[in-house]
Amino acid sequence: MTSVARLATLLGELRNPAFRKLWLAQIVSEIGDWAARLALTTLIYERTGSAAWAALMAISSLLPMLGPGQLLASFADGMDRRVILVAADGVRTVIFLVLAVAPLSTLALLCLSVAAGLATVPFEAARSAATLDVTPPERLPAAMALGQATQSLALVVGWAAGGLLLALLGASGALAVNAASFVLSALFLVRLPSLRPQVTDTGSAPQRVSALGRLKAAFAAIAADSLVRRAAAVAVFAVGPATAVETLVVPYVGRAWPTSPSLAAVILTGGAVADLLLTVLISGNRPPEALLRIAAWCAAAPAALAMVLFSTGAASLGALGFVVSAMSLTAIAPASAALAPRLPATLRASSFTVLATALTLMQVTLSTGGGAVADRAGDPTAARWLLVLPLVVGVAALLRPVRVPVAVPVAVAVPVAVPDPA
């Protein structure tokens, strides 16, 4: 498939009005998010001079996924997803307006960032589930690939815009722009049709299940499918370490080029561009087993090259190492395309929440740990240790691929886990 044909396939689903609204909301809110994250991380590093504190701020919005956010997200399987999406945007608008205009302590900044993340968890679960709801099955791989490419594009624009806003308006300006992005996102989403979860198995009647019960059922469904398990493992062990390495960019620039803090935005933008280009080149119209192998290569190859660059000791090559390591983030696109269609229709939001929880735990643990190592042993050393994980899991997935296809789970109200011999 040529690059032009690949791009046409990716953009084809934008003819679907409901999908287009979800896509527009995603791109505007994520651009604002990344700009705001750069502003907050830079602000905290300037106050504390600590890579550990900067990393904690960078992943603070993810912390709710390790607690009450999971239960909130599960409600996206029992309520109109449109209501959840618009309400979450409203909450985040208010929080970022406060961050933009109020003089706050470092601890208060961190707490409000966590609060914004608490609203983001149900938003992302509902948006992921809604994407599957409004997309015909035969066009789902292209839609999933476009979603990942959009996230990569938002990274490119968000990091670049964040650096520009910091230079022109300061941190408060970047935070105010993020608040405005949530308003625009809500304006797109409020025009969606009702998106109540539908039961497609006529032989099964919906059952009233608690939030915890839905999460348990989703976990059981994921555990029962070996392909989903392995694809999820590759995504988690690629994206988690790559995100942790990303949080070291601001401290690295602060130490290597203390008079040029805007270089952090350049490095982060470069990594996002590399991730975007690789994402666009990967075709999602492949068998799940092939997609899993592609995800494994995306995890292992950039990690190996980046480790070499970080080992040289040259500041410029270390900066290039950050750009290369960001390409491991691409693994989530083929991994998601492999596992998403196999998730039970009535537990999609809860399933995404379970998977996101595993990823968040990895991101939080590695980012805080990596920041602590960087403060003691240097940023390149911390980055090298972090990248061992995607290298190992990628090689392991290539050496032990899924050989026997597993039946796609049937969409029922509460699926029963069937043991998988693989």
Q: What does the largest sheet look like?
A: none
Percent of residues in helical segments? over 70%
Number of strands: 0
Q: What would the principal axes of the Cα set say about the shape?
A: globular
Show unreliable segments. 200-207, 404-422
Question: Which structural class do the helices and strands define?
Answer: mainly alpha
Q: H/E element string?
A: HHHHHHHHHHHHHHHHH
Overall residue-averaged pLDDT value: 79
Our Rg estimate from Cα atoms comes to: 20 Å
Query: End-to-end span in angstroms?
Result: 33 Å
> In percent, how much strand structure appears in the residues?
under 5%
Number of contiguous helices: 17
In short:
The protein has 422 residues and is mainly α.
